[in-house]
Amino acid sequence: MNPxxxxxxxKRRNExxxxxxxxxxxxxxxxxxxxxxxxxxxxxxxxxxxxxxxxRDIFDWLVFSSANGVDFFVDRAQxxxxxxxxxxxxxxxxxxxxxxxxxxxxxxxxxxxxxxTFDAEGMLKQLVPEAVGKRFLLLxxxxxxxxxxxxxxxxxxxxxxxxxYRSVDIAHADPAIxxxxxxxxxDWTTATSSAIARxxxxxxxxxxxxxxxxxxxxxxxxxxxxxxxxxxxEAKTASMNGIVDVVKTFTS
Length: 252
What we know:
- This protein is an alpha/beta fold.
- It folds into 2 domains: 4-33 and 170-251, Rossmann fold (3-Layer(aba) Sandwich), CATH 3.40.50; 43-166, 3-Layer(aba) Sandwich (Rossmann fold).
- It has helices at 15-23, 43-53, 67-80, 97-107, 120-127, 148-154, 175-182, 194-204, 218-226, 240-251, and strands at residues 4-7, 27-30, 34-37, 61-64, 91-94, 135-141, 158-169, 188-191, 212-215, 233-234.
- Helix 8 links the parallel strand 8 (188-191) and strand 9.
- Helix 2 packs across helix 3.
- The relative contact order is 0.15.
């Protein structure tokens, strides 16, 4: 019988994992644990987008912490100007290869910096040495660690931080998925962020003891341990490919 894996990312971001695990011969189920919504107001983003769309040089760096941030940013920019193009003078740093791929897909451009470690600390290693006097636009979710802003400010940067999307917990799990988890019929369950880990534990509770959780990063693993649900596996690189690779290696 094929092993079953439960994907827990938001709907718009599950296709890559669904295809990859399907190619491994796994039965793929989905239960989003968080939903991604527009911010309460677009005004803060619009206030910086309009001069950028006019070609004005108001930032030195754009900082994207997720592919979701790229999507919401570009969607809003295109709603204001159909043939949206970033000024070439603006440099871009992203949190990892997945975010860089989203950037390439959405605006045909690669990031200037993709850190070796796919987290805020990796980004800071690249940005802090040249932060003095530079203007940074941080594009982020409604929740997450406040690491980049204070560090860049301390290093002498000028920082504008804007929420480009909200991360909201799903209220209830699909009853059919709950039943499968209860019966131990889900072999693997993914946890690809700390927010997802928290929502996962809230939705399934002790039922998670009947599945093997695979975590995307040390940070997500630490969250799972704090919640009493330690991961069975952790990806060697904090990416979707890392999740697939660690499961593939274990099950081969």
